[in-house]
Amino acid sequence: MAGTMNKVMLIGRVGGSVELRYTQAGTAVASFSLATDRYIGGEGSQGREETEWHNIVAWDKLADRCNQYLVKGQLVYIEGRLQTRSWEDQSGQKRYKTEVVAGQMTMLGGKPGGSNGSQVLAGVGAGADDEMEAEELPF
Question: Would you say residue 75 lies in a domain?
């Protein structure tokens, strides 16, 4: 359909360790959380910061690179698309999860405690733009 777009751009901090898994076909899938903050202003010292947590999924070579380079607390730029999956849990309840499927990842300022600079890592090959069936997902 012409005129539509599904694009997400986030700058945030990695929330924990990257989990790397593989599909039955051997395709790498990395998942991790990303925290973004926003300041809500108020009168005087009434302002506060709110944190939003995002579920990030990377495929194939980008998944391997995320697993290799990303550490908790690292500032990173993620560009990708939103995807919502649904499944039934063990009790038969329908569950949903919205994720950002990363197509590009840029490390900002290097690893915490490491060198400064940025490095762009883009998704390449199957998975960067391809959709997989829910039963193929390793989580």
Answer: yes
